[in-house]
Structure formats: structure tokens, C-alpha cells
Amino acid sequence: MAPRDPILGITEAFVADKNPNKINLGVGVYYDDNGKVPLLQCVRKAEALMMEKAAPRTYLPIDGLAIYDKAVQELVFGAESPVIQEKRAITVQALGGTGGLKLGADFLKRFSPDAQVWISDPSWENHRALFESAGFQVNNYPYYDPATRGVNFAGMLDELNAMPSGSVVVLHACCHNPTGADLTSEQWDQVIDVVSKRGLVPFLDMAYQGFGDGIAEDGDVVHRFAATGGSLFVSNSFSKSFSLYGERVGALSIVATSAEEASRVLSQLKRVIRTNYSNPPVHGGQVVATVLATPELRQMWEDELAGMRLRIREMRRLLVDKLAANSAAQDFDFVVRQRGMFSYSGLTKPQVDRLRNEYSIYAIDTGRICVAALNSHNVDQVAKAIASVI
Ligand code: PLP
Ligand code: TYF
């Protein structure tokens, strides 16, 4: 038997739990205040337009729907980006953010077979597995510092300075999963500088654009990497930002050092796609492309995404306040400083076990909780339970 996915396995255990008051703070999914996964209005409207057109479902091009790739590229790099104007950027539709990472990993293994890959310590569980399955040796660079509940930035920089040139560095563009601890703007400057000077290959994973400080604000780090003139890989996902988890919509973008190199990169990437799944599915890409390219729907999306972002912030504040009100034996103020869907709560494995066994509250063994699963109806129950297990 293969081991279970440590995160998706928690959902299996949650589903099997018969307690009607169970709460799943495990998997990274955004729920609304009624505990439901939303279907965004902008998505409904786009789907209504698509139904009216009743277009046939032919095969898409290997690299996906052209209007999708263009809209995503402009979203990721900025519509006025020099890398777009100079035709140095290519973007292909991918099966979610995971699919974007896997395409990038397979591509890199083919052209940089001896490179090593570095991921943050800790990182999203699937990063290591994905790059290992593509054939890479995967190492960790220091990232989280439990003492400060922030980033061990000196340790991270030291490691970046020690990696062999040509190493692939996977970086979370925003809303670090699992810790919620992001780099400051000044720290990003230093990382970009070292990566660029030392000839490392940056691979940005942006699965939560819009959940940190805003669409433009969260995307800024991509723009800054793109401005260095070096190569760059970016996988992005719309699973969370469009609440389209099951449609598998994402992309991989690669910035090359010239337009001519970019066209060769695209041709090779198409070969990777062809030999994996031939071409991507239509529906999700069409929905996202319709929303991004229709001004009224796009505004609606930006407003709905802002609503999700602000609700998560409110839940962070509410959880901290309720923990204090329940005389929790510890200060949780750090939770409001973290970004995105997750909080590294500092709960230990035995505490997580007690939450699960005694209260039917499911967190990840590492203490990660999904703040986006809290709501005004369950936050009291969660705060009381946490206060009691610590
Ligand atoms: N990268 C990170 C950091 C994630 O948290 C996730 C989770 O969803 C992904 C990639 C994968 O996204 P998708 O579900 O679109 O494949
Ligand atoms: O970290 C999370 O919870 C999300 C969802 O193999 C996820 O990124 C978790 C595990 C996995 C795929 C997606």
C-alpha cells in the first residue's frame, strides 16, 4: 500500500466521522460563512453565457485555449509587462497548479537533468513528491522559524548563497503553505538579487493570488522576478481564487531570455503535454477566460475575491479574540499577522490528536489549520477546544 496523502487523508477521516458537529480545518479549501464552498457569481454568469453559445467540444490546442493563455499571462505578469511585449514569456494551460508544477518539473528534468531542486522547510507536501517523481533530488532550504513564528531569513539567504549554480528554487509567491509566513518586500529584493546573481532557476508557485493583500499586490513578486531578465518558471492556480477546485484550471508560464528561445521552450513544453494528456479540458479554462476578458465579470471576480480575502482576515481576528476570551494559555496574536488560508498554529501532534479524538476538529498533524474553514458559527467551538487542549 502506498502511504496516504497527509492532507487529503485527513478529509477521508473527517468524512467517516459521525459527529454532526465535526469541523474540517485540514484541507486548504475556502468555505463561506455558512460552511459552504462558494460558486462565484462571476462563474455562474460566465457559464450562462457559455450555455447560450452551446459551442461544440472539440480538442483544444496542446497548450490550451489561446484566449485563456493570453488572459492568464496578462494576469500573472501584468498587461504592460516587457516580457510579454518582447515575446519572452510563454503560457500554457495546465491541470490546476499541480499540473503546472509537474509540466515545469518534467521540462526541467529533460533540459537540466543534473540540477537539484530546493523547496522551503516546510513546504506544501506535494512539492517534494512532485519533483522527486520527475526524477530530481529534492532538498530543503531553511524557511520557518518556530521561535519567531516568522521566516528564518538569514538561514534562507545562507542556503541560497550555498546552492550550486543552476539549482531550481521553488518559492511560494504569496500566502506560504503551510506556515502563512511570507517574506517582506525588502526580503524579496534580496532573494531576487541572490537568485539572479548566482544563476539559480526560480520556480514561483502562486496558488493563492488575491488571498494575501490583493491581486496586484500578491502578483508583484512575479513582476519583480520577470524584470531581472533571467529565466523564470511560474505555476499558478485558479482552484482557490475562482473556487473551481474540481475543474483543474491552472497554468505554467516560462520566461526565456529571448523571443527565439521562448518559441523553442514552447515547442518542447508542448511535447511534454502531448505525452502526458495530449491537451487540456475545455470547461474550466473557458470559464476563467470569459471572466478575465469580460470587464463586468472581471470586476465581479475581483470583488468576490476581495470578499473571500477579507472574510479570512476577520476569522483570524475573531479566532484570536475568542482564544483570549477562553483564557487560552498562550498568546495567538501571530495568527493575524499570517497571510492566506493557513495558520501554523503551533499546536503539537498530541494536541492535534486530542482535537480530533475528543472534539472532532480536524487539523493537520503539523499544527496547520485552514483559517478559511472557520466561520461565525463554528469559531467559538474551535476556540474553546483549542484553549482546552493547550
Ligand atoms: N501549490 C500550493 C502551494 C498549493 O497549496 C496548492 C493547493 O491547492 C497547489 C499548488 C495546487 O493547486 P491545484 O489544486 O490547483 O492543483
Ligand atoms: O494544502 C492544501 O490543503 C491544498 C489542497 O495533495 C491539497 O493545497 C492538498 C493536498 C494535495 C492536493 C491539494
Topology:
Blueprint: H1 8-16, E1 23-24, H2 41-53, H3 66-77, H4 82-85, E2 89-95, H5 96-111, E3 117-121, H6 125-133, E4 138-142, E5 144-145, E6 150-151, H7 153-162, E7 168-172, H8 185-197, E8 201-206, H9 215-226, E9 232-237, E10 249-255, H10 259-274, H11 283-293, H12 295-325, H13 334-337, E11 342-344, H14 349-359, E12 361-362, E13 368-370, H15 379-389
Parallel strand pairs: 1-12, 3-4, 3-7, 7-8, 8-9
Antiparallel strand pairs: 2-10, 5-6, 9-10, 11-13
The protein binds pyridoxal-5'-phosphate (PLP) and (2S)-2-hydroxy-3-(4-hydroxyphenyl)propanoic acid.
(2S)-2-hydroxy-3-(4-hydroxyphenyl)propanoic acid binds at residues 5, 7-8, 27-28, 124, 126, 177.
Organism: Noviherbaspirillum suwonense
Domain Aminotransferase class I/classII large: 21-386
Keywords: Aminotransferase, Pyridoxal phosphate, Transferase
